Amino acid sequence: MYIVTNSIRVKKGYSGKLVERFKIRKGIEKFPGFIRLDLLVTDGLKDYDEVRVYTTWENKESFEGWFHSDVFQKAHENRKQHDYVIGNQVSFHELVYSYVKEDERAVENL
Predict the structure, then answer these.
(1) What's phi and psi for 27, nearest 5 deg?
(2) What is the pLDDT of residues 56-76, one digit of tens each?
(3) Taking Cα atoms as reference points, which of 48, 67, 66, 60 lies closest to residue 10?
(4) Residue environment code for 21-52, b if the CB has 16+ CB neighbours within 10 A, otherwise e
(5) 54/38 Cα distance (integer angstroms)
(6) What is 7-20 written as a DSSP string?
(7) Residue 73 main-chain phi, psi, to 5 deg
(8) Residue 109: predicted pLDDT
């Protein structure tokens, strides 16, 4: 699996507003190879809020297919830099091991 992380720094008190924007999906959920979208808010930061957007894909090729697709372009065409966004950093990860406890039994992935 392939995981892409977009760590977005916003002004203090604006994480909820950004989360609500990302809850409105614009086709990613139907794209081949897409597995899941997770939104995390970093706890305990003093100077700003941080929202991490994780998308999980079957493989790198699935992500790249979406990134270069019309679906991606349409979802981002009216995107503007909101004044509460300070900046962001995107990182890319290959999932090499996962452990999930499921119904009293453990399931190891990969």
Answers:
(1) 115, -15
(2) 999 999 999 999 999 888 887
(3) 48
(4) eeeeeeeeeebebbeeeeeeeeeeeeebbbbb
(5) 5
(6) EEEE-TT-HHHHHH
(7) -60, -45
(8) 58
